[in-house]
Write a structure and sequence with these properties.
alpha/beta; 2 domains; seven-stranded mixed β-sheet; elongated
Length: 490
Amino acid sequence: MTDPSAAKDVRSLYRQELFPFVHRAFLELRPGTPFHEGYHVRAICHALERVERGDVRRLLILLPPRHLKSFCASVVFPAWALGRNPARRIICMSYGLDLAEGFSRDSRRLIDSAPYRGVFPGLQLDPKRSSVEELRTTRHGFRMATSSGGALTGRGGDLLILDDPSKAADVASETHRDKLHQWFTDTVMTRLDNPKMGAVIVVAQRLHHDDLPGRLIATRGWEVLELPAIARCDCKVSLTDNLDWNREKGTALLPEHMDIPQFEEKCREMGTRAFEAQYQQAPQPAGGSIIKPEWFGEIPENLRLGDYEAITQSWDTAAIPGETNDYSVCTTWGLLGNHMDLLDVYRGQQLQPDLLRIAAKLREKWKPNLIMVESVGVGTGFAQQLERQDRKGVRWYTPKGSKVERMAIQSPKLEDGQVRLPRTAPWKEQFLAEAAAFPNGKYDDQVDSMSQALFALDCNLVEIRHCSRFKGPGYPKARVLYPRDQTEHG
């Protein structure tokens, strides 16, 4: 005999937490198919819960195919959100109307099921105003389905979900990418009834380095949940407000579903380029690159800031903020022996007064012995302002040769393992993605800052007393010397 109080507790759990509700919905909609309680599903659910309660207003979910991202975000989540608030207005979009309507039918099946009615008895669909394209509630809420590029004139909502914005066959076209981005910017992003409170979710797998997710990431205005099929580095992934998943480098996202040998087979089937994009969320531009992510070493976790012989910062400044403009970047490096450790990356678009305030904070935080500034364009004025703040340690750098030539000269240091990154850092994934895409990526500001910093070693901008090569802790601390010629470094 079922315990009524236990059943009540279970229904309450389903109403309050999305992950157990996703599990129950899977059993209802896919009977006979095993449900793997992967950490990545918990991570997706936690991110969606934060949107539903108003903590996040712009969410980008990037996962490989066939890992339940659409099931969670486009099928179950709209039904759960409507159950919690039947007046909610949700617009769900996909690249094709058939796909969007398929998600809508599954949501309708879930809402019509006995378990759902037991959990959310207050939600009632309006029988006179519900169809595949639009499920309306008696409280004037709805779940609307449409396609990417479709007309939304006169329609608005509280929550907009764009799932699979492009087909793989279309995204290679620059015209398609530009048209989709314009539709998303000019149409979708204007459809929130309350722009201050409404939320937008984009769910996708990467298909091109300049696809819609790539352009959204570049704005730095989105919370990004990016989970490659095989972890590229150690990382922490939030599962609840108080619990993280410590995912280790080289591990499969869900081994019970697809393990490493299966991913390797999939890579052989579809080719490395397509696999890196769709499964690893790391699309590469055509033409290859001169930096391989695996070249970067890992900073030992027991190292402290005081262990370094010198700290340097390298600035590459941009002119004015703008969606298609370059970024201003400051990389902070610690020198130890023959290693150069990347300790921090600032990347943003700011007007110069704001950028100078940021520079002052970074200077105070890291106390660099040397600050390198590329003195091209606005960089000259920026360097002058830094000197007015404090002349000590500021040096100008006028580059010679192309960006590719300058980085190619430094790449042997990377291949030799001299350049190391932290085990985890919030900027690490984006830094590695830009480095791997260079020289054909959309942005190269972080790479420019890195090549400038590595160049400092070649030109003896930093010399360590008592030795020509750097030595580790226990040796005399660094003494920073500067060359007489501050402007020409070939």
